[in-house]
């Protein structure tokens, strides 16, 4: 038998053993804040500012073993933010729905308190752009965004299957902004922290 075949069989055996240890699904429902970074770039030559917002979020995850899992997380309702420019006030509002797919490593698997770290990729769907104030009446468009996501969190198991979660994630979210008659006016650098609490259940 070739070395490649032996390696393939060995890796398949290791994966099967790991999966047999703790195949499990978890799901969460949460309420979380999207808090943009303090410096949101320059639009039309003026410093931009994007405010924060709260919304419902949810996730579904599959655990390969007691330590490793893959998680799909998303906003269940859209976030909405006001965009302001220095000297002009609020000039637009925008909605978005963030989604991330990440691989998480869970510490202290035998404890009721289980911190975890995650790294993955995020997508942000931008919609509902509207101009206000000095730009009211003009069309406005923001591009969708994607990039690296990082997560830090902890689960507190109140029973064998029910847990509470607190987590914070960082998403790469920059969107090019185009305004009717003005063209491309710059890039809004949102790059938010998303944090909050969730209730979860393990199947």
CATH class, please?
Mainly Beta
Q: What is the first-to-last residue Cα distance? A: 40 Å
- Mean pLDDT equals 89
Structural class: mainly beta
Radius of gyration: 21 Å
Strand order of the largest sheet: 1-4-5-7-8-10-11-14
CATH fold category name: Porin
Explain the overall architecture.
With 203 residues, the chain is mainly β. The protein has one domain: Porin (Beta Barrel), CATH 2.40.160.20. Helix content is 10%, strand content 65%. The chain is built from one helix and 14 strands; from the N terminus they run αββββββββββββββ. An eight-stranded antiparallel beta barrel has the order 1-4-5-7-8-10-11-14. Strands 9-12-13 form a three-stranded antiparallel sheet, with no helix packed on it. A hairpin with a 4-residue loop joins strand 4 and strand 5. The protein is elongated and about 60 Å long. It starts with a helix and ends with a strand. The N terminus is likely disordered.
């Amino acid at each position: 038998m070739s070395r490649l075949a032996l390696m393939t069989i060995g890796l398949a055996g290791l994966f099967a053993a790991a999966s047999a240890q703790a195949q499990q699904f978890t799901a969460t429902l949460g309420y979380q804040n999207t808090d943009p970074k303090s410096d949101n770039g320059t639009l039309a030559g003026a410093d931009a500012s994007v405010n924060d917002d709260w919304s419902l979020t949810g996730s579904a995850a599959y655990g390969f073993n007691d330590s490793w899992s893959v998680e799909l997380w998303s906003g269940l309702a859209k976030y909405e933010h006001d965009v302001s420019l220095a000297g002009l006030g609020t000039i637009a509002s925008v909605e978005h729905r963030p989604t991330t797919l990440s691989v998480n490593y869970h510490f202290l698997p035998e404890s009721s308190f289980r911190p975890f770290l995650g790294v993955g990729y995020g997508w942000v769907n931008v919609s509902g752009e509207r101009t206000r104030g000095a730009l009211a009446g003009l069309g406005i468009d923001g591009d969708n965004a994607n990039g690296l996501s990082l997560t830090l969190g902890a689960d507190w198991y109140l029973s064998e299957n029910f847990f509470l979660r607190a987590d914070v994630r960082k998403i790469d979210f920059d969107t090019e902004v185009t305004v009717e008659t003005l063209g491309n006016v710059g890039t809004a650098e949102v790059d938010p922290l998303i944090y909050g609490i969730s209730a979860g259940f393990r199947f």
